[in-house]
Amino acid sequence: MSAFDLNPPTDTQRKTITAGLSADERRVLLEHGTEAAFCGVFLDNHKDGVYTCRFCGLPLFRSSAKFDSGTGWPSFFQPYDSSHIKLVRDTSYGMIRVEEVCARCGSHLGHVFPDGPPPTGDRHCLNSVSLAFTESGDALPDVLERRSPEGQPDMAH
């Protein structure tokens, strides 16, 4: 069970956050779009820390689970907490894939594929625009004002 409050944002919070998103962030997060390969700000990020949902701030992946998949998108082999990710069958574009969305706010993150490295064999292929990053030692975001453990440094390292 997650230490984080997984209740979705209120309608007021959702409207406020949406108003602050760029057009590209809205297209990817809310309309299930995809950013161009090899363009994302986090593709070559090698800092130690936690990747969080750009929309609601929920921790999604640790930098220790990041790897270079060669695909052009940030890739991870394991989520921060499996309850923070919701998997959805995606049949768009004539393909059958598994979409990943934030379990708290429902924002589109990317897709997961069964061709990743050990120990999981999973490749969580994400859009940088769907993410925010908190360096180790810094306080995690508390976008929804939920308090601890949000707004505190990640202690689950």
Structural key phrases:
single chain, 157 residues, alpha+beta, six-stranded antiparallel β-sheet, three-stranded antiparallel β-sheet, 10% helix
Task: Tell me what you see in this structure.
It is a single chain. The chain is 10% helix and 25% strand. The strands form 2 sheets. It has a 6-stranded antiparallel beta sheet with strand order 3-4-8-7-6-5, with no helix packed on it. A 3-stranded antiparallel beta sheet has the order 2-1-9, with no helix packed on it. It is globular. It contains 2 helices and 9 strands. By secondary structure, the protein is α+β, with helices and mostly antiparallel strands.
Largest sheet: 6 strands, antiparallel
Taking Cα atoms only, what radius of gyration do you get, to the nearest Å? 15 Å
Distance between the termini: 17 Å
Query: What is the succession of H and E elements?
Result: HHEEEEEEEEE
- Number of discrete helical segments: 2
How many strands appear in the DSSP assignment? Answer: 9
β-strand percent reads: 25-35%
The structure class reads alpha+beta
Q: Residue share in helices? A: 10-25%
Poorly predicted ranges (pLDDT <50, ≥5 residues)? Answer: none
Biggest sheet: strands side by side, in what order? 3-4-8-7-6-5
Give the rounded overall mean pLDDT: 94
Shape, principal axes of CA atoms? globular
